[in-house]
Amino acid sequence: MKASDLRVKTRDDLKSELVTLKKEAFNLRFQKASGQLENQARVRQVRRDIARIQTVLNQAVAPAGAQAKR
């Protein structure tokens, strides 16, 4: 997932995708703890996708907050 792809999506789409990724990260942690995790790289990929979405959401909020302070 690329940040440029995320910037095109609406805020609601990003939030719903964030919830989905957080659930997946939770499930991956359980799989790792029980020894059932097959794809170790997926944990890292999901964490980074979560960070990307949060960054894009924060960047969308930042310009509005900067103008309010003026």
Write the topology of this structure.
Elements: H1 3-8, H2 11-34, H3 41-69
What does this structure look like?
The protein has 70 residues and is an all-alpha fold. The chain has a single domain (3-69), classed as Helix Hairpins, CATH 1.10.287.310. The chain contains 3 helices and no strands. It has helices at 3-8, 11-34, 41-69. α2 runs antiparallel to α3. The model has no long low-confidence stretch (mean pLDDT 91).
Based on secondary structure, the structural category is mainly alpha
The CATH topology corresponds to Helix Hairpins
Please name the CATH architecture. Answer: Orthogonal Bundle
Average pLDDT confidence is 91
Unreliable stretches (pLDDT < 50, length at least 5) are: none
The SSE order reads HHH
CATH class: Mainly Alpha
Determine the fraction of residues in helical runs and give it as a percent range.
over 70%
Strand segment tally: 0
Number of domains: 1
> Gap between N and C termini, in Å?
35 Å
* Number of DSSP helical runs: 3
Largest sheet entry: none
Shape field: elongated
What labels describe this entry?
70 residues, Helix Hairpins, elongated
Brief digest:
The protein has 70 residues and is mainly α. Helix content is 84%, strand content 0%.
